[in-house]
Amino acid sequence: MRGVTFQCLFYGSLIFGIWTALLYVYIHHNHVSNLEKKNQGPALIWSHEKKLQQQIPRDPKQIPRLRVRFEMPDKYETTEYKTFLRSGKDTNYSKPEYIAGFLKYGFNAILSKSLGSERDVPDTRNKMCLQKHYPANLPTASVVICFYNEEFNALFRTMSSVINLTPHYLLEEIVLVDDMSDFDDLKEKLDHRLEIFRGKIKLIRNKQREGLIRSRLIGAARASGDVLVFLDSHCEVNRVWLQPLLHTIAKDPRMVVCPLIDPIDHETLEYRPSPAVRGAFNWHLEFKWDNVFSYEMDGPEGPTRPIRSPAMAGGVFAINRHYFNEIGQYDRDMKLSGAENLELSLRIWVCGGQLFILPCSRVGLINKPRFAGRPGFMKSVTYNNLRLVHVWLDQYKAAPQILFLYYQVLKGCSCCDLETTSSFFYDNLV
């Protein structure tokens, strides 16, 4: 009897202890949750993008920053906005106007407005470039700038830098092509501000959306200079930028030349020097910058030596106007923009030309993310890559990566003629 009583007391105590422990855990959890709710501000709603790691480094410099995002209205919850949040930049997301400007233009529009229509940028040329001298009787240049919904001040800085840093006797004109922009400040306000450049700027407004490729062709058709210089609408040219380009083309009209492109940070708008690089592309037809080895810059010209390049970035280059027409210009059947730089690069090399990057010519370019302000960009890139493969790659079309590109097109490119593409795919590749 005594043993039974002892067992009952033992098990009863054990059960009581377990329930007491569970009750303590429950009360502690509710207490912590209530503290967290009290600590949250009522005005702003914040959410973690990533969970912080439990292990905190001993070195304070290695402590990870808490990345948060401001919960925006539904109109900002787009694919582009989510891509922006994944960009890994430390940004003040609590300013809706900053995010709206970024999604609208692809860079810090608030800072761009504060910089105004012109600024001085650092001379990033090598010191040996300062010793170079160029003849006065160089060809004239028509600078073609196409824009679509560009930020007003960035566009104006592009034009102002060209006007201020280019000898007037070399600058035939600036051909400005508006590809049917929607923004109000690119209409009457732009017309009014262009009055200060009277006589140097031709403004063409497309009556329908043409895309970058056809807009450049429209601008080239209206140009009258010996050399066509194509610029993006968010550039800032540097000192003595045009003379090296014109001098090289004057020696050989089949030379197509690009300046060394200095990156302008899309958040800080800081102008940074670029190392010596050349343009290239991989089997997925993605443009890449390739480093130039130091031994390639040996010789009397040193770091000023022209860099032979397989491909151009496409945003900034100079070409003899007659040679541009001779090789057939751009592929008119490409859509909007994308891959036109690779197509033109292949066209130049196949048609007896040469493509070089000139380190003594520097142009800054805002490095916009690919998605920014470019609806339908990926579809046009896919379509244009398909045309590039079909026209230029000949026996290399059967490379595995190219086959994968075709598979992607057939699977998801709604802008393509799938029946024609499928027929071509099976007739030529399978």
UniProtKB/TrEMBL annotation:
Entry keyword Protease: no
Record localization: Endomembrane system
Location of the Glycosyltransferase 2-like domain: 142-324
Keyword Transferase: no
Source superkingdom: Eukaryota
A single GO BP: spermatid development
Cofactor: Mn(2+)
Residue ranges crossing the lipid bilayer per the database entry: 9-27
Membrane topology: Single-pass type II membrane protein
UniProt cross-references to Gene3D superfamilies, sorted A to Z: Spore Coat Polysaccharide Biosynthesis Protein SpsA, Chain A (3.90.550.10)
InterPro entries: Glyco_trans_2-like, Nucleotide-diphossugar_trans
Main localization category: membrane
Keywords on record: Disulfide bond, Glycoprotein, Manganese, Membrane, Signal-anchor, Transmembrane, Transmembrane helix
Cellular component annotations (GO), alphabetically ordered: Golgi apparatus
Family: Belongs to the glycosyltransferase 2 family. GalNAc-T subfamily.
The protein's name: Inactive polypeptide N-acetylgalactosaminyltransferase-like protein 5 isoform X2
Taxonomic source organism: Mustela putorius furo
Gene name per UniProt: GALNTL5
